[in-house]
Amino acid sequence: MAGIYIEEVARHVGQEVTIQGWLRHRRSSGKIHFLIVRDGTGDLQAVVSKATVGEEQFAESAKLTQESSLVLTGTLRQDARAQGGYELDVTQIRPLQIAEPFPIQPKEHGVGFLMEHRHLWLRSSRQHAVLRIRHEIIRACRNFFDERGFILVDAPIFTPNACEGTTTLFQTDYFDEKAYLTQSGQLYGEATAAAFGRVYCFGPTFRAEKSKTRRHLTEFWMVEPEVAFAELADMMALAEAFLSHIVEQVLATRRAELAVLERDVSKLERIKPPFPRITYEEAVARLQQKGNPIQSGDDFGGDEETLLSNEFDRPAIVHRYPAAIKAFYMQSDPLRPDLALCMDVLAPEGYGEIIGGGQRIHEHDKLVARIHEHKLPEEAFRWYLDIRKFGSVPHAGFGMGIERAVAWICGLEHVRETIPFPRMLYKLYP
Fold first, then answer.
1. Tell me: the pLDDT tens digits for 360-384?
2. How far apart are the C-alpha atoms of 273 and 262, rounded to whole Å?
3. How far is Cα 167 from Cα 119, in angstroms, rounded to an integer?
4. Dist. CA 62–CA 49, nearest whole Å
5. What integer pLDDT is reported at residue 165 of this predicted model?
6. SS3 of 183, please?
7. 255-275: per-residue pLDDT in tens?
8. Taking CA atoms, which of 44, 106, 192, 248 is between 20 and 30 Å from 370?
9. What residue spans of 270-379 are helical by DSSP H?
10. Distance from the Cα of residue 32 to its chain's centroid
């Protein structure tokens, strides 16, 4: 008999089915064992009665340890008292492997211990909830852009040049050349936007930042739209619709997982347009009023982002930062050339920046000058400059880090829980 998944049990009430999974918990009451079994799609209570399965199988089931693998056959019935509302009356039980003592127990474990055992920690209910929500966020990202006519383009992982700055690059040998792990697919997104009009890339990015904050990973995933004939205001509107859509989809499909995480969904239900929009200069004034020592011209760090985002009940868009603290490709404001036509979107509840982007320089000579100002090798950007020679147009885009979005929507304290195997400073195992 082919097995079914636990998430499908509602369709099979009264039928004999086979479930294949792992034992999460077992308790016994005389001649009955109550097994909580998981299969990756959900948990199900299975009732093993000695009278039904016989002496031998009942004795075998008594040997089952946490995370033992097994195959169960029985009849499904509805039971409001059972976890998930359904129960399996077992007629046959077949252990596949009796697990060794499981190192992660229902007690307080240190973060270091859990990270060393990340490959096993993933089996917990909490991690299931986080990663299912991550999956939903990624699906919502793709659906949002696909439904709006964007084309998915895959940017390379190996690149010959920096995008965000030369000090945070992972360098590697590429045959007889030097190459770098990508910091962003943006530059390639600009090239493909000139071919297709509206594009997005989605993939892993790498930053060699020696940072140990709760918001930083050295390897993370980004979704990056880029649009031809677009300006900063267009990106603000797109980011606003994008984040609203993602939160709406998670609320529509993953409330059970949010409940496992004890997430206050009322805060997510407020995430609707319009989002507050303030200039960098207004943001600095707000921070100074709160006693923050920031001065005009300084970039925001985690403390500043937290203070600002705590002021709002939905994401806030901060725009027009000083050009001097932004990337070389940012277009300057024609009314204030010292400012860049850029934006950061700060998630509420102190989560800070989850989106960064803006309008790109589309004039060839201006971009060449900016490359020289930033002491970057012009030769490495020859292809990027070509985009400004053949039908250049105003264009803009942004990038959203998936892990920061997951942390915010799930209400997590640290991004290390937002990806199956996080890569952090001094953390490469497992």
1. 999 999 999 999 999 988 988 999 9
2. 25
3. 32
4. 11
5. 58
6. coil
7. 999 999 999 999 999 999 999
8. 192
9. 280-289, 302-309, 364-373
10. 43
Q: How confident is the model at residue 225 (pLDDT cuts 50, 70, 90)?
A: very high
Q: Which class for 250: exposed (0-12), middle (13-18), buried (19 or more C-beta within 10 A)?
A: buried
For 361, the 3-state DSSP assignment is coil
Provide the pLDDT for residue 426.
83
Rounded to whole angstroms, the Cα distance separating 403 from 417 reads 9
pLDDT of residue 168: 82
Integer angstrom CA distances of residue 260 from 124, 249, 348, 421: 11, 17, 21, 21
Question: Is the pLDDT assigned to residue 428 strictly greater than 70?
Answer: yes
Tell me the two tokens of residue 294.
């920031």
- How far are the Cα atoms of 25, 95, 275, 325 from residue 102, in angstroms, in the given order? 11, 17, 47, 50
Measured at the alpha carbon of residue 124, what is the angle toward residues 120 and 129, in degrees to the nearest 5? Answer: 125
Tokens of 348: 């509420």
At residue 316's C-alpha, the angle toward residues 310 and 319, to 5°, is: 125
* Contact (Cβ atoms closer than 8 angstroms) between residue 184 and residue 399: yes
Within 10 angstroms of residue 396's Cβ, the number of other Cβ atoms is 28
DSSP label of 279: E
* DSSP code of residue 295: -
CB-hemisphere CA count at 13 Å for 105? 5
Which range, 27-36, 214-223, 392-401, has the best average confidence (pLDDT)?
392-401
Q: Is residue 331 a contact partner of residue 360, using CB atoms and an 8 Å limit?
A: yes
Contacts of 425 (CB under 8 A, 6+ apart): 209, 210, 211, 212, 216, 218
- Per the structure block, which two tokens stand in for 199? 């594009």
What does 92-144 look like in DSSP terms, one character per residue? EEEEEE-PPPPS--SS---HHHHHHTHHHHTTSHHHHHHHHHHHHHHHHHHHH
Residue 164 — very low, low, confident or very high, per pLDDT cuts 50/70/90?
Answer: low
The number of C-alpha atoms within 13 Å of 41 and in the hemisphere containing its C-beta is 10
Q: Is the dihedral of CA 196, 202, 203, 208 positive or negative?
A: positive
Q: What are phi and psi of 124, to 5 degrees?
A: -75, 155
pTM of this structure: 0.95
Max intra-chain CA distance, the chain: 85
CA atoms of 233 and 224, how far apart (whole Å):
17
Helix, strand, or coil (residue 146)? helix
Cα distance between residue 337 and residue 370, in whole Å: 13
Residues 76-126 have pLDDT tens digits of 999 988 888 899 999 999 999 999 999 998 888 999 999 999 999 999 999
- Over residues 245-253, mean pLDDT: 98
